[in-house]
Amino acid sequence: MSSATPILLVGCGKMGSAMLAGWRSQGIAADDVVVVEPAEALAAELVRNHGVRVAGGASEVPDGFAPATVIFAVKPQMMDAAAPDYAEFIKGGALALSIAAGKNLHYFEGLFGSECAIVRTMPNTPAAVGRGITALFANDHVSEQQKQAAESLLSAVGQTVWLDDEGQMDAVTALSGGGPAYVFLLIETMAKAGIAAGLPADVAARLAHTTVSGAGELARLADEPPEQLRKNVTSPGGTTLEALNVLMADDGIQPLFDKAIAAATRRSRELAG
Fold first, then answer.
1. Once rounded to an integer, what is the mean pLDDT over residues 111-118?
2. What gap in Å lies between CA 169 and CA 172, rounded to an integer?
3. How far is it, in rounded angstroms, from Cα 45 to Cα 128?
4. 77 and 205 both lie in a single domain
5. Residue 118 shares a structural domain with residue 73
6. Helices (H), 115-252
7. Cα–Cα distance, 112 to 118 (Å, whole number)
8. What stretches of 26-175 show up as alpha helix (H) in DSSP?
9. What is the pLDDT of residue 2?
10. Is residue 48 domain-shared with residue 131, that is, in the same domain?
11. What CATH number is associated with residue 164?
């Protein structure tokens, strides 16, 4: 990851912390990272757990620290207040990498200049356990070396995929960005259905939780696509087929998900302005 370092990480909430832990586990030296985190308790924890230098704001970044990558990991609603303070680093040649939903390349080019190198990304929360997936899109000023650097940084918390069109980021936000919530809802829904079918609440919850997490792991490790895995579980004339006849009906789960993903995609576009 030498082309990605030194790194200036602006914000260290759940996603920033996950990335930092991934970088350190993959061998990035503590001296190659400066984290901007104004909360004193969290700052002390970062120093204790990772040995990195922590600054309370842009003005406290150590003198002489020249990042190759500046990562904006603050909440979208905080970006207007936070990002402009780091313009000198971006204009000086550092790659700007954002993980903020709804903040497009045009937004950052307006802050730092249209000639600056900017990568927009959308990770998801399984990054916290190293099992996330991140979509990336770069503007025309990002070099191939910088693309590789961005990919290596996000690969520390899971898989990565490059997009051909920034407009696809809204659908990514809807599908994988919000996707973990849909899976958690599936666990809740299955458990409630189990209770309705006569199971004790604790048994239904355990069965649903373990079934979904186990099926996800099976899908990850299997060579077959999900369609075939589904067929493998479905015996002709059996109980699973009876349930799938409901879930796969014309008014079943597919049109519901189509509607849900379309709604989330539309909202993502609205938030981007």
1. 94
2. 5
3. 17
4. no
5. yes
6. 144-155, 169-172, 179-196, 201-221, 226-233, 239-247
7. 9
8. 40-50, 79-82, 87-91, 105-112, 144-155, 169-172
9. 60
10. yes
11. 3.40.50.720
What separation in angstroms does the CA of 139 have from each of 12, 93, 104, 261? 25, 14, 10, 26
- Interior/surface letters 66-98, b for 16+ CB within 10 angstroms, e for the rest: ebbbbbbbbebeebeebbeebbebbeeebbbbb
Residues 75 and 112 in one domain: yes
193 versus 15: which is more confidently predicted?
193
Residue 119 shares a structural domain with residue 45:
yes
And the tokens for 260? Answer: 């849900």
Helix (H) or strand (E) holding 269: helix 253-272
- Residue 150 is predicted with a pLDDT of 96
Are the beta carbons of 10 and 74 closer than 8 angstroms? yes
Residues written for the chain: 273
**pTM of structure:** 0.91
As for how many domains the chain has, the answer is: 2
Indicate if 145 and 193 belong to the same structural domain.
Answer: no
pLDDT of 266 above 80: yes
Q: What is the mean pLDDT of the chain?
A: 94
User: What number of other Cβ atoms are within 10 A of residue 147's Cβ?
Assistant: 17
Residues above pLDDT 70, as percent of the chain: 99
Which of helix, strand or coil describes residue 85? Answer: helix
Query: Does 12 lie in the same domain as 77?
Result: yes
- Taking the C-alpha atoms of residue 79 and residue 74, their distance in angstroms, rounded to an integer, is 6
pLDDT per residue over 121-178, tens digit each? 999 999 989 999 999 999 999 999 999 999 999 999 999 999 999 999 999 999 999 9
Domain that holds residue 225: 177-272
